[in-house]
């Protein structure tokens, strides 16, 4: 087994001399097995977790042991947990094993914290690859100079397009992969439209009230015109494996701008049948979504953290809609033969429990969706558990995420499991 890794206050990382890697699912400590570990994927990042105490597995005593301090070169150092943030396409199966200090006040930034250890010169994580799509490999997004030149050229040609200016900031400041794709003329590009939202998500990437966990980026402040959207989207629909997507991390809920989306889709489909027009949404407004289906929307991805309305409401904190509206949006999409996906935000401690597992399987049978994007939920694990208030005795037994994935593939052979939105060749092959 890999060794437990700890960090000192400066961020220097050490492997523990005898404690082995431990992990957690919710509040439950887990002793991960070697066959369920993978080498840390290229492009992943390491983080410390301030205000927490790392916990490892003591092989000799056969128990989980906290590590408050570590003696280094004859001196004692206070220890903090080390976590991995996985590169795209990889699914976290377990959380880092930590205990809270009595003075815990730090809310961690919006990352998906994964258990990670050290063995024989390599990092190992509790993870699996859920989508091998090569287009999202981090190696394609590392040339910041090339991206900056491309952004400059686009803005020089279209200096008055506010959407391009927004996406230039996303590409260069937030290092958004999708925004970089636009300027590098390939694959999926974003079309943010909405400064407003009818959810108050606990882990919102773009807007949080004071005192909540800090957002990772600033939300778009305007609604682009149809002309601005078409000017960005139309040429992109002719590139390889093209997808243009409403609903991004830098905006609220795109269905609140349904008229703008509707007219944009109509304009695009008057001029080309190429590529995929996709909508990432909370699925809150089924009637508005249906109008987009009629206009030519090709695919829709609805975000869910849980198939339990209680957990859904505690995370999304909906305003003016309910969980049944989300289900209705998905049902209408299938009725119009729109490629239908859910963005299932995976969290060890809720997703990997029998009750949630059963609800997911029942949901698949009822909706016949085409794709489950299994994505890691970016949030402080302690904050999420505090807000969700899961009662372990009511959730049922622990079912490892890797086992859930295996069972889904066996039980629903036509259902796609992945991490990314799908291009024409995949969507047409599903019809």
Second rung of CATH, namely the architecture of the largest domain:
Alpha-Beta Barrel
| DSSP summary: helix tally | 13
Write down the CATH topology of the largest domain: TIM Barrel
Principal-axis shape equals globular
What value does the average pLDDT take? 94
Query: What's the alpha carbon Rg, rounded to whole Å?
Result: 22 Å
CATH class group of the largest domain: Alpha Beta
The structural class is: alpha+beta
What low-confidence regions span 5 or more consecutive residues with pLDDT below 50? none
CATH homology group of the largest domain? Aldolase class I
Q: How many E-type strands?
A: 24
Number of separate structural domains? 2
From the N-terminal CA to the C-terminal CA, the straight-line distance is: 45 Å
What percent of residues are in strands?
Answer: 15-25%
Biggest beta sheet summary: 7 strands, antiparallel
Portion of residues in helices?
25-40%
Description of the structure:
31% of the residues lie in helices and 25% in strands. The protein is an alpha+beta fold. It has two domains: 127 residues, no CATH class; 236 residues, Aldolase class I (TIM Barrel, Alpha-Beta Barrel). The strands form six sheets. Strands 1, 2, 5, 6, 11, 15 and 16 form a seven-stranded antiparallel sheet that branches. A seven-stranded parallel sheet has the order 18-19-20-21-22-23-24. A three-stranded antiparallel sheet has the order 4-3-13, with no helix packed on it. Strand 9 and strand 10 form a beta hairpin.
